[in-house]
Amino acid sequence: MKVISVKTSTEYNVYIGSGLAGRVGEMLAETTSPCTAFVISDENVFRLYGERVLASLANAGFRTGTFVFEPGEQSKNIETYGKIVEKMAREKLTRSDVVIALGGGVTGDISGFAAATFLRGIKYVQVPTTLLAAVDSSVGGKTAIDLNAGKNLLGAFWQPAAVFCDTDTFSTLPEAEYLNGCAEIIKYGMLGSEELFESVAALPVSLHYDAVVAKCVDMKREIVENDEFDRGGRMVLNLGHTVGHAIENKSGYMVPHGMAVAAGMCVITRAAENLAFAEKGTAERLLRVIREYGLPDGTSAPAGFPEEELAGFSAESLFEAAMNDKKASGSKLTLAVPKRVGECALLTIEKSEFIDWLRAGGLK
Ligand code: NAD
Ligand code: GLY
Closest-lying ligand to the alpha carbon of 142? Predict the structure, then answer.
């Protein structure tokens, strides 16, 4: 088992290894006196891992409660949040109790937000079961739900008390969810570790989960410790996301996040090279890995989309979507831009210049 200690406004450990879902109770009991552990999960994850986690909590002396919701981003909303906190109130949770977020990023985000706001903040732990949640959303304390006006618009910074990442749970992930996580891992390699990049280029992520997840978590730890509240440096984590969010938006959220980020990374890296910001050969190295994983490179329609729908992903169309992004206020835009494999920088441009970046990135 690997242990990474995160030193933010509250300090906590991220435990990564095999079999941890069945040890949540025992490990939580090391720092938490017997209390109610309120497990929040989606139906898919609860069916697979719910009993294991509940049994481990009960064996360690915790009283348990549960809230299980319909899987998917469409549940990350005010309605589900309302049901969760009402149930927490009916079960008489106090500030001495703990929420257990068992699942992917949707579960982690909504459970974290419920924990951040219930009684003005109670303890929660993350038990990530998707690769994406393991390497990104379970660490760093960003919690949120979606509003009709846009994704993640209602949220709070609220760090977990611990993260228990059982890498065995990835064995049941659907292929698309595995690939979503791989795109984020390739992103970590591009933004800050040539060694990680080369290791996932040489060996599929699934053959060395523990090492890869630990490396990404450690990179995120450093970034978050230096900018917990997202005022500057943490924005490097958005590599590929400005274009990626525009692709998700233009596809009506049919293109999954990881696919969109992969395409976005390729566009921004090609642009960076063409605009002499990145070293020559950087885009070619990225494209080789992206294609090996079967991820989209931004120049052809993502999987499941006929080529004739490419107009939806044209420079003009993505520019329009990026300009309408509710989070992108003001006249400027900050982009995470690769300089070479393993290094990226933040660049603030006039929003109107973004269209030039999209064209330089190979979009028609
Ligand atoms: P998700 O939580 O919806 O999980 C994806 C699917 O996989 C779901 O259908 C789920 O039921 C299923 N699943 C989860 N674990 C499984 C397992 N082990 N075996 C089988 N099926 C499993 O999605 P996600 O990709 O994990 O997370 C996406 C969310 O994360 C988005 O809402 C995004 O905004 C958020 N996010 C947050 C942060 C942050 O810092 N807070 C960072 C990145 C993304
Ligand atoms: N996932 C982006 C962040 O945590 O800042």
Answer: 1
